[in-house]
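Fill-in record for Cholesterol 25-hydroxylase like 2.
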Amino acid sequence: MSTCRFLRTEALSWMSDVENVTEGHSQDLALQPVWDYLLQNHHDHLRSPLFPVVLSVTTYFFLVGLYTVLDMLAPHWPCINRYRLHPDRPITWPNIWTTLWVTIYNHLLYIFPAAVAQWLWRPPTPLPREAPTLWSFFLGILGCMVVFDFQYYLWHLLHHRVPWLYRTFHAVHHQYNQPFSLVTQYLSGWELFSVGFWATVDPILLQCHCLTTWGFMVFNVYVSTEDHCGYDFPWAMHNLVPFNLWGGAPKHDAHHQRPGTNFAPFFSHWDWLGGTHTVPTPSSHKTGEICKNKSTLFLKKSQSKMV
């Protein structure tokens, strides 16, 4: 009787060990079916140096198109307008056309030639047969976010503290002190190049898998667009990440109204450490103005009154 009990205990223990090993193994291979499908059906497209550019650009215009539809519906649909940071100041068609034109201009003048140059001179991307594990996938994206966050915090801070850099390169982005989605890439060529350069190089520095790199690019575009969208949705990142660790649309909206605060694009810790962190107040949302200022205003006003 005791022998049977012993064998049963050993069998149950062995089955438990097998289940644990199988569960861990299946978790490691969770992305493999997706990666196999991509390799089998889209191998040539994925290897092209143009693919990361196309992925980022299409993601951006898809998200901007979605938010722009919401902007047009918000004045007529209270269920949408209630989530806007400035519900009493609707987005106008002149705002949309102006920012859209600058975005298209930048893509034609900077992004398209850079993409063609990559296509001509950069070799096709080697694609490994194995997918990244779930752990390495999310850890790689987090690592790229942390590095990018630090890089852009320094760049952003420098371009606000040095008047020449602000006037020459960054002032155009602050011509709207009430951001909406199309303001995300309402940038100078230098700023667009800087952001694109780090988003491309950081996954290489961290030796990320191709799938991880593309995941970071998509997430980076999503967060940048969300920061400028002008909405405070319950599912927004700053409402999901605890302890006020994430920036989000309200803090970046406050940055456009008080340009000496909230420089980091993702997290809040660098602004805490640098003494540039501020929490937006409801009154700051009510006082925001959505007007496009002439660049000469930035040449004449001090940094404390930059709009």
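KEY FINDING: Residues 44-125+138-280 form one domain.
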